[in-house]
Amino acid sequence: MRAFGLLDKMTVSGTDPVSYSLQLGSDTVVMNDLIGKNISLRYTGNIFCTVCSKKTYKSFGEGMCYNCFSTAPDNAECILRPELCLAHENKGRDVEWEIKHHMTPHYVYLALVNETKVGVTRGTQIPTRWIDQGANSAIILAETPYRQLAGRIEVALKQYLTDKTHWSKMLRNEWNQEIDLLAEKARIRSLLPEDLQQYICADDTVVTIHYPVTEYTKKVTSVGFDKMPEIKSPLIGIRGQYLIFEGGSVLNIRKHSGYEVELSAE
């Protein structure tokens, strides 16, 4: 098979196992079907901004040209730091965009990746957000009516939990198997300031996620198109937004959004 087009993050469905699809031009490639096959990803040298579609010499912030990286609401400071969101005050880079995306229910969650991680996402991104981070399991901690409040809860918990993912440990499947997310939720809720405890969610469902990986390697090495215009190797698995190749090389698809590639498999 062959497909040609611009890379973007893989779409996902299901959790046992996760099903991955990659849209390249008019072709939808079911990536799970390529596991066990020798695949080739050849970079043409072209990059197109994922926001304005203009050709750019370099990608910023997962697929943007520099202008969009500096001005687009998709890359506003509150994307990485929700506590800084001003949508509830009718402010932001693009107020209409902010209200549409950030004045909606947001969730604070606990995800078991390597250790317990705290994060924020919109309801429409559950469980996609957890899958993209490569979480083994996750649980909703709190529900808020808008983004800034969820960010305040996240900040309050950062002194007790990490908000980062150790990508190489995740891709080696190294995680603390003694952690019980239900117990973690019970412990964490008591650490929140009293005015934020009202947002604790009663839903205690723990979502367990399984990834289509035939084997995990003891060592992983990140590869990218800027230094390696063609990546050709047997695909042994997919986790998060990473393709895992035989020998431990891994490619972050989302990081290369906007890169023009040709995909083939045999």
Descriptive notes:
The chain has 266 residues and is α+β, with helices and mostly antiparallel strands. The chain has two domains: 2-57 and 213-265, no CATH class; 76-208, no CATH class. The chain is built from seven helices and 14 strands. The protein has helices at residues 66-71, 77-80, 95-102, 128-132, 147-157, 167-171, 181-189, and strands at 2-6, 11-13, 19-24, 27-30, 38-47, 106-112, 116-122, 137-144, 207-208, 221-223, 230-239, 242-245, 249-252, 259-265. The strands form three sheets. A seven-stranded mixed beta sheet has the order 1-14-5-11-12-13-10. A hairpin with a 3-residue loop joins β12 and β13 (249-252). The longest helix has 11 residues, at 147-157. The relative contact order is 0.22. The mean pLDDT is 95.
Describe what is shown at a glance.
The chain has 266 residues and is of the alpha+beta class.
In DSSP terms, counting alpha (H) and pi (I) runs of 4 or more, how many helices? 7
Structural class: alpha+beta
Strand percent estimate: 25-35%
Major sheet: size, sense and barrel closure? 7 strands, mixed
Topology:
Blueprint: E1 2-6, E2 11-13, E3 19-24, E4 27-30, E5 38-47, H1 66-71, H2 77-80, H3 95-102, E6 106-112, E7 116-122, H4 128-132, E8 137-144, H5 147-157, H6 167-171, H7 181-189, E9 207-208, E10 221-223, E11 230-239, E12 242-245, E13 249-252, E14 259-265
Parallel strand pairs: 10-13
Antiparallel strand pairs: 1-14, 2-3, 3-4, 5-11, 5-14, 6-7, 6-8, 8-9, 11-12, 12-13
